[in-house]
Design goal:
By secondary structure, this protein is mainly alpha-helical. The chain has one domain: Hypothetical protein af1432. The chain is built from nine helices and four strands, in the order H-E-E-H-H-H-H-H-E-E-H-H-H. The radius of gyration is 15 Å and the shape is globular. The termini are far apart.
């Protein structure tokens, strides 16, 4: 394990995240799984590190482990300003606003920040990276959660939008549903 991963793992253990359940494993194990999946997709180091912190402030549905937003600077010191901003946005977005990007034929690269109660416009590159993390987050846990239908159409469209390994991974993971 490289020194950054050791530092991140130690941080989460010290914060008690290794004792928090998430989709039938620990929060830390899930976060590391998202990291490994993005790494296997060939994503850069910053995005992979962001993946470990992808739900650090809690999401619309996951509230079992959350850091207060006043600790954002601390997380920035671990993973950098860009990666922390993307992790923040992954936590802040409402699923409905994010999913709206996958309805129709034109992307608007917008989401609604539930913490600040405002709309956020992303660059196409940041939007794609957020899609990669959001999709890997889902694919890493859907087989354990057994909730195959939750936002399925949006995740399928996200995978198609990204193409390549994302689409292949979606098809491979969701093929497991039929085996059960």
């Amino acid at each position: 394990m490289n020194s950054d991963l050791k530092k991140f793992t130690e941080f989460f253990r010290n914060e008690g995240a290794n004792d928090v359940g998430h989709s039938n494993i620990t929060y830390l194990a899930h976060s590391m799984g998202v990291y490994r999946d993005l790494k296997s997709w060939g994503c850069d180091k910053d995005l992979c590190h962001m993946a470990i912190f992808h739900s650090i402030y809690g999401t619309e549905t996951f509230q079992d482990y959350t850091l207060p937003l006043d600790r954002r600077r601390e997380i920035q010191s671990f993973i950098g300003e860009w990666a922390e901003r993307l992790a923040y946005l992954n936590c802040a977005l409402t699923y409905e606003s994010f999913d709206q990007n996958f309805i129709g034929t034109e992307m608007n690269y917008k989401l609604y920040d539930r913490f600040k109660n405002e709309e956020v416009k992303l660059s196409p590159n940041d939007f794609e990276d957020l899609c990669r993390v959001h999709l890997c987050d889902r694919l890493e846990q859907v087989g354990r959660s057994m909730d195959w239908e939750w936002r399925r159409v949006s995740f399928k469209r996200m995978a198609e939008y990204l193409g390549g390994i994302a689409s292949e991974s979606f098809d491979r993971v969701y093929a497991e549903e039929k085996k059960e």
